[in-house]
Amino acid sequence: MSVPAQLEFFVDPSRCIGCKACMQACTECDTHKGESMIHLEYVDRAHSVQTVPVVCMHCEQPTCAEVCPADAIKRTGDGVVQSARKPRCIACGNCVMACPFGVPELYIDRQTMMKCDMCYDRTSVGKKPMCATVCPSQALFFGTREELATLRPQSRPTSVFRFGDQTITTRVKVLVPRGPTPPPQLDVTAAMADQPQRRALRLPMHDAAHDTLDPFAEVEI
Amino acid sequence: MSKLPVDELATIHAFGPHLSGRVRGSSSTEPDRLVKTHCCFCGQQCGIQLKVRQNEVIGFEPWEEFPFNRGMLCPKGVKRYLQGSHPDRLVNALERDPAATGGFSSIPYAEAIAKTAQAIARIQERHGPGSVAVLGGASLTTEKTYLLGKFARVCLKTPFIDYNGRLCMVSAGAGNKKAFGIDRTTNPWSDMVGTEVIWVAGSNVAECSPITTDYIWQAREHGAKVIVQDPRITPIARTCDVFVPVKPGRDAAMFAGVLQLMIDNGWIDRDFVDSQTVGFDAVAAYCAQWTLARTSSVTGVPQRTIRQVAELWGTAKSSFLFHARGIEHHSNGVQNVLGAINLVLASGRIGKPKCGYGTIVGQANGQGGREHGQKCDQLPGLRDISNPDHRRYIAGVWGVAEPEIPGPGVDAYELFRKIDRGEIKALLSICFNPKISLPDSEFVTRCLDKLEFFAAIDIFLSETARHADVVLPGSLQEEDEGTVTQVEGRVIKINKAVDCPGDARQDWRVIQDLAQALGRPHGFTFESPRAIFEELRVASKGGIADYSGITYEKLERQMGVFWPCYATDPQTGAPTPQHEGTPRLFEPGSYNPIAKGAGRFYFPDGKARFNVADYRDPVDDASDDYPIYLTTGRVVSQFLSGAQTRRIGPLVEQYPEPRLELHPKLADKLGIEDGAFATCETRRGSITVRAQVVTTIRPDTVFIPYHWAGPKSVNRLTVAAQDPISKIPQYKVCGCRVRRADGVPDYVATREAQQ
Description:
Structural class of chain A: alpha+beta
Structural class of chain B: alpha/beta
Strand order of the largest sheet of chain B: 5-4-18-17-16-6-7
Mean pLDDT of chain B: 97
Largest sheet of chain A: 4 strands, mixed
Number of helices of chain A: 7
Low-confidence stretches of chain A: 203-213
Largest interface: A-B, 52 and 67 residues
Shape of chain B: globular
Helix content of chain A: 10-25%
Strand order of the largest sheet of chain A: 6-1-8-7
Radius of gyration of chain B: 25 Å
Oligomer: heterodimer
Order of helices and strands of chain A: EHEEHHEEHHEHEEH
Number of strands of chain B: 28
Distance between the termini of chain B: 24 Å
Low-confidence stretches of chain B: none
Shape of chain A: globular
Largest sheet of chain B: 7 strands, mixed
Number of strands of chain A: 8
Strand content of chain A: 15-25%
Radius of gyration of chain A: 18 Å
Mean pLDDT of chain A: 90
Distance between the termini of chain A: 34 Å
């Protein structure tokens, strides 16, 4: 039982509506004890309704596994990085600190790390991950490259990310627009102005010092 | 006496809203079976499979084969199963009892029915049949709404029945009937992909009808430009091509201004207008006053944007226009709708693939619930209760003499005014929580207090049902079968997953038990929802909303049927058992029983109607004393008055309490910080909630969602001004003032978030 290679997970943050159907559906799964393995946050609610869903990106060389002193995190042959193996996990939190996407979480009460395993109980038996099945705006999409190309001719998948000196290739793809897109609507007063504002609109991050934690800051386009 | 029996907090303590337990481990608990059905909440009616174990719904599984949502669900759909087996679920009949903890005592079901029937009979004997009123709802199955309309007219013999669709769909319905002669969205949603322009006016699609987001963005992937008209940058507006930041209540002006630019630039489909419509000249004459400068000044939308919209819309080859409560919830709601329709008719882009128009319904059965007779002026099949032919036909189906059917009643709000005046003395309500959902709700509360007798059929003790003398335990959606009609006009089948708990009954049985107890069981002896549907098919036959060709089997086989679906060909009279329904309206060459071949629209001449869509300032507009616009709406994790969703733990956690959204410019001026308590005050009252300071709203407008009760209910502030035609209340705008709160409101200490 493994996840077929032709089935891929695509994330299009520009489609996210912040409804949290993915998180609510994720909590229904007993393999992670009713906790959501998805992170979904406003980038900066004061200035935008933009939200970003973060699932495990399933790196080819998972940093979480590399830093694990107990060898509790395994990547299966189908490219899925599994959650920590409970008997091995020593709850040190190295993976939590090291993951460039901020995915693993430490559950102190259970003395273990848990993270998204691409719904291995579903995807390894031919089903789609729960989050990508329910996502009403299909910001989370699970299917083949061919399906994606038909459905989203204006989107291009990318799977290489740079974090400082580290370059990471992932099984999960992020969709970026092929061509120019209209600037996002961020402030109603800009839309109310008689002249369009010329300056580029930028989303200020909560904390500039943590800019590098933004998984999409260095997306190669 | 229908005052609250005890202190409201005592009732809340006993009957909730409490939170559902978070059910863990449900995914590994093997269900006995999966039941294919639909979500109980909004008008999208997403297909879903409920996991059932013994007599309990323990979870869900996506239903990927259902064509509309293909497995997609919003958070409400995901967690909807938690409303079953809920600690607050009413499993017994209740009687008002000030001596009891919580103010209500359990009584045997039969006794509750007898007491209700006796009270109704007593009041009707003394004050006449019209002293009793019925309120229904658009979350009920079509079978129940049909039965309820029949019950009011035939058993209670009262004209006074109306429903909570009055708060939702009626402006669209009235506008559609005036323009097209039929009241239904024109195309299936799948038609959207491949269109050039989509105009969304007054619809927070991502939060109120989340699945539609995928369709719109799928269309965008295939080249569609998206126009969003809203005072707020909602998630669907964030990435749109043109954002129209309209001032609340100015939509008719916006539409007129755009039409004028289309006329100026020759962007009118003259062939279509001349051959398929009437009334364009009067509309053109009206629009002449809507110069670009005036339109901009009235709507608060810059001229460049109005020009851009007119050019996009005017020159497109294919398009969709959608609207929802944002333009409909106004004392000028019907005019706003007609203004939108005028733009569609002027473009000629209707009645073909990739071209259409629709209103996005809000409630589960927002469409079906307004077609078959719980509306005060309507009989089944979208028939008119004032039309002698329609009355005769329905009297024949019901086996009563035509004069016995009462005439038109009044809208739901007027019904409360009649209670206030002492003309209506008893009320039976189901699926309606007016104490939260009607505007100026302090007035509604005073009216409930005045009732001589009030019986509520309910699943939880809603805020309104707390006023009841008798509460009859009804059914959850998953405890019964039946049909509903969703946003596209597709009739679908709701399937039963579990039996009602305890003494609770399926709603149609409760209604029939009342008819029996009143000694007028004639016409109320159905054995099943299917039997009701079979009569409804006959009753709707020949009406505009013709369901005669729909069977439960066809609904299952086709995964829904778009009405009209004819049992016999309206042209030839030949039986058409294989009729598949009508996914797309107004196609060239299409036949309908009103036009009889004269044209595609549902009027005797077959032509659509342009209607002058007159702009009027809102009632209780922003003014010197109340200088800010207050607008209201939904959040994605809650639904309507929250009677169900404020009981579902994970949904409450997602957005626990209402927040007042305001722009930083306004917040700075008022000295209100993000997260601080702010008091919003109108001529009706004031509430204090936390502020959320965001750039995504007009600086002259504040927004508060409406799903909460008591001191957090924004409908204590909204104005009861109504559209003169549709009688929809003006929820979307009134003047208010906002200030820093004097302190932390009392409810923080006394009520949980959802209470």
